[in-house]
């Protein structure tokens, strides 16, 4: 027996020693780049059999928020790959480590300076390529030579914008781009006279340059009509690939997609602004690798550095250049035939000569957000360009001030800490018997049962109890961008700010409307369909399966599908309204009321199947004899439904409706995805999406936590009052 035990221990130790070290890389590369990355990592593993690299793809915003949460908890990937503008916030939070501390100074000299951006004179990122900038792409099938000035752009755009089938609708546009987002029109701002922010992060939005930029975009859309009335990134991308647009403003990251589609396209600078004779200045930067600050093990750090050097090596950069056509950051490769013989890269280098480095300061997030909000109001017609620039400046200054504010503790902080200590001691005292019995059980004859239950207790604590109380704790703290690793309890200040803010109450009213309207239609449609299927429809199983599909499909897919359906010009909803009802197209996503309505329609589609299934279950429990008696009494269908079906369904439907209210009140996905994070101009937010933006867009974690606690208390009060009212009704 001892020999067998010794053998097992030796084998276990051998396997443990032989097991390769696992490294994690989180990134946001598009599909074509992901394929090349995966190939490069597999080659790295062959060269280093003692290492395994697990790459994980996340969307850009999800990458930011997930990494922040993981790094704050002391974990996360060894390397994170993303755009250069993330290093300012991450460095301020102290969740990425400077490369200067672990790499020799000479290492940085082999790269283009754009690929090694600095924040506060320290390197926090190393990019494998440079560019990531906007340019004009043109379809050579439709256009042989690109325009050189904005006057030429407008003239050619008018020629290319055509109604090819004579049905009164434009079938091909001269120019398309995601003009609702500031990043895509930002190059024009300095071309009209002044940059939108200073190097140290101060906004410069209330300027004639920004006003002229607003006016220029409006003229392209409304006066010259060479761009669609609604156009997000995916719409512009699809139109260009389908030869329904002659020109497109997009970045070098999109080349691989168009090459894969077999397009013959060229690139050029965004045309010179004719009135100022200045070139638009696209923001030029990199997407690169940053180091997790939580790596403590020297061996793991050495392995991570080896991986970084491999991923930024000439051989890997050349692989990316050959496969997806990016400009390598390693200066030694600039004379390589893969670069010299690539016409797109040569033109791209020419385009970058007029570019400006991407700002990496954290304040740029507040500038982008305020610019986006007010600009979309200008597009919707609720603000003039002059008013939009003034409001954008005011909002940017306020948001930057909130981002950088470090609240100091007041007297209430000590009260909170004292109450927390008393509550903790009280919980220990009340549960002392249970704790003692649990500890004894772990040592008693039934300890196996206790050990089997222990993982469930640990899981509940880790997933529910700890996050709940942690959220309450940070709601009383000054947890934000600058205190990410050193926050402290400061008092009730966030709660006071929230409940005295008129915007909070306006969002609360909108959330009530959102919840009531959605749950009303969920329950009404659900009961209606359940009654029809139960009493009238043949093949009940088929119809149950068919109607449950909206609920079964992931919300992310459904929301984005509905967003495409609501497009003003190409969405099937407006096409139906025009062709069959002869109505004018609705600006679903460009106006606040219709955008909010679009969110409600989408959520109704997603929510009624659950209520239908609950109602079907309730209908099965109603005795058929009651209906037979009603037939004998000559009750019609409405009377049978009103006096039999509905009263007997209420005990089933009321708890379901209560759950539906809670889910809908907290439903972030639909509003965020259908309205594209609150478009137009942050006017479709509900409370939960407002909280998400405050936390992950503006880094106001303490304030967001306080608002989320208020939401929790509102829902608790509503749930208790509903249950009490239902109990009193049933016991009369």
TrEMBL record:
<dbReference type="InterPro" id="IPR035906">
    <property type="entry name" value="MetI-like_sf"/>
</dbReference>
<protein>
    <submittedName>
        <fullName>Maltose/maltodextrin transport permease-like protein</fullName>
    </submittedName>
</protein>
<comment type="similarity">
    <text>Belongs to the binding-protein-dependent transport system permease family.</text>
</comment>
<feature type="transmembrane region" description="Helical">
    <location>
        <begin position="644"/>
        <end position="665"/>
    </location>
</feature>
<dbReference type="GO" id="GO:0015144">
    <property type="term" value="F:carbohydrate transmembrane transporter activity"/>
</dbReference>
<feature type="transmembrane region" description="Helical">
    <location>
        <begin position="545"/>
        <end position="562"/>
    </location>
</feature>
<dbReference type="InterPro" id="IPR006060">
    <property type="entry name" value="Maltose/Cyclodextrin-bd"/>
</dbReference>
<feature type="transmembrane region" description="Helical">
    <location>
        <begin position="701"/>
        <end position="725"/>
    </location>
</feature>
<keyword id="KW-1003">Cell membrane</keyword>
<dbReference type="InterPro" id="IPR000515">
    <property type="entry name" value="MetI-like"/>
</dbReference>
<dbReference type="InterPro" id="IPR006059">
    <property type="entry name" value="SBP"/>
</dbReference>
<feature type="transmembrane region" description="Helical">
    <location>
        <begin position="593"/>
        <end position="616"/>
    </location>
</feature>
<feature type="transmembrane region" description="Helical">
    <location>
        <begin position="449"/>
        <end position="469"/>
    </location>
</feature>
<keyword id="KW-1133">Transmembrane helix</keyword>
<feature type="transmembrane region" description="Helical">
    <location>
        <begin position="512"/>
        <end position="533"/>
    </location>
</feature>
<keyword id="KW-0813">Transport</keyword>
<dbReference type="GO" id="GO:0005886">
    <property type="term" value="C:plasma membrane"/>
</dbReference>
<keyword id="KW-0472">Membrane</keyword>
<dbReference type="Pfam" id="PF00528">
    <property type="entry name" value="BPD_transp_1"/>
</dbReference>
<dbReference type="Pfam" id="PF13416">
    <property type="entry name" value="SBP_bac_8"/>
</dbReference>
<feature type="transmembrane region" description="Helical">
    <location>
        <begin position="411"/>
        <end position="429"/>
    </location>
</feature>
<keyword id="KW-0812">Transmembrane</keyword>
<feature type="domain" description="ABC transmembrane type-1">
    <location>
        <begin position="508"/>
        <end position="722"/>
    </location>
</feature>
């Amino acid at each position: 027996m001892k020999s067998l035990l010794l053998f097992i221990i030796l084998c276990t130790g051998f396997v443990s020693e032989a097991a390769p070290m696992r490294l994690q890389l989180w990134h946001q590369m598009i599909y074509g780049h992901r394929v090349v990355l995966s190939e490069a990592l597999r080659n790295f593993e062959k060269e280093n059999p003692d290492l395994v690299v697990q790459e994980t793809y996340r969307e850009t915003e999800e990458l930011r928020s997930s990494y922040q949460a993981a790094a704050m908890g002391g974990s996360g990937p060894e390397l994170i790959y993303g755009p250069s503008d993330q290093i300012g916030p991450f460095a301020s939070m102290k969740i990425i480590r400077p490369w200067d501390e672990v790499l020799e100074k000479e290492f940085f000299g082999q790269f283009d300076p754009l690929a090694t951006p600095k924040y506060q004179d320290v390197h926090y990122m190393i990019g494998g390529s440079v560019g990531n900038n906007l340019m004009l792409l043109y379809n050579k099938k439709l256009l042989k030579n690109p325009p050189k000035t904005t006057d030429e752009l407008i003239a050619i755009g008018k020629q290319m914008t055509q109604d090819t089938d004579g049905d009164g609708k434009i079938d091909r546009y001269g120019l398309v781009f995601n003009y609702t987002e500031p990043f895509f029109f930002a190059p024009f701002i300095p071309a009209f006279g002044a940059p939108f922010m200073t190097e140290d992060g101060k906004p410069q939005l209330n300027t004639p340059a920004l006003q002229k930029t607003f006016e220029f975009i409006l003229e392209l859309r409304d006066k010259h009509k060479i761009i669609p009335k609604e156009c997000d990134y995916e719409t512009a991308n699809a139109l260009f690939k389908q030869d329904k647009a002659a020109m497109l403003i997009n970045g070098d990251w999109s080349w691989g997609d168009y090459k894969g589609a077999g397009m013959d396209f060229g690139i050029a600078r965004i045309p010179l602004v004719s009135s100022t004779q200045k070139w638009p200045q696209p923001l030029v930067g990199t997407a690169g690798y940053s180091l997790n600050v939580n790596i403590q093990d020297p061996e793991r750090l050495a392995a991570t550095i080896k991986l970084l050097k491999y991923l930024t090596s000439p051989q890997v950069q050349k692989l990316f250049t050959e496969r997806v056509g990016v400009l390598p950051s390693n200066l030694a490769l600039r004379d390589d035939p893969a670069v010299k013989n690539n016409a797109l890269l040569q033109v791209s280098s020419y385009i970058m000569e007029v570019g400006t480095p991407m700002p990496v300061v954290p304040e740029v997030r507040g500038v982008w957000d305020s610019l986006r909000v007010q600009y979309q109001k200008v597009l919707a017609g609720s603000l003039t360009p002059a008013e939009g620039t003034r409001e954008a400046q005011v909002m940017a200054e306020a948001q930057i001030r909130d981002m950088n504010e470090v609240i100091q503790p007041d007297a209430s902080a000590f009260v909170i800490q004292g109450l927390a200590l008393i509550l903790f001691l009280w919980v220990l005292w009340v549960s002392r018997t249970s704790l003692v019995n649990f500890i004894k059980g772990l040592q008693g004859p039934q300890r196996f049962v206790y050990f089997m239950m222990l993982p469930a207790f640990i899981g509940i604590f880790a997933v529910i109890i700890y996050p709940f109380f942690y959220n309450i704790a940070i709601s009383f703290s000054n947890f934000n961008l600058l205190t990410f690793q050193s926050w402290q309890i400061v008092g009730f200040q966030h709660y006071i700010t929230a409940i005295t803010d008129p915007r909070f109450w306006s969002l609360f009213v909108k959330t009530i409307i959102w919840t009531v309207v959605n749950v009303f239609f969920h329950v009404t449609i659900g009961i209606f369909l359940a009654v029809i299927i139960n009493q009238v429809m043949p093949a009940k199983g088929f119809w149950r399966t068919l109607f449950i599909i909206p609920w079964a499909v992931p919300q992310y897919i459904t929301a984005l599908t509905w967003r495409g359906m609501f497009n003003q010009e190409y969405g099937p909803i407006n096409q139906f309204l025009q062709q069959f009802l002869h109505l004018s197209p609705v600006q679903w996503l460009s106006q606040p009321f219709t955008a909010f309505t679009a969110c409600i329609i989408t959520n109704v589609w997603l929510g009624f199947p659950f209520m239908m299934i609950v109602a079907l279950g309730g209908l099965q429990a109603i005795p058929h004899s009651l209906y037979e008696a009603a037939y004998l009494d000559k009750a019609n269908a409405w009377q049978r439904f009103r006096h039999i079906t509905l009263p007997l369904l209420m005990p089933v439907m009321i708890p379901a409706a209560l759950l539906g209210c809670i889910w809908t009140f907290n439903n972030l996905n639909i509003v965020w995805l259908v309205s594209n994070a609150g478009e137009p101009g942050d006017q479709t937010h509900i409370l939960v999406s407002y909280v998400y933006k405050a936390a992950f867009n503006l880094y106001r974690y303490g304030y967001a936590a306080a608002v989320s606690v208020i939401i929790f208390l509102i829902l608790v009060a509503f749930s208790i009052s509903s249950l009490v009212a239902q109990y009193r009704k049933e016991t009369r």
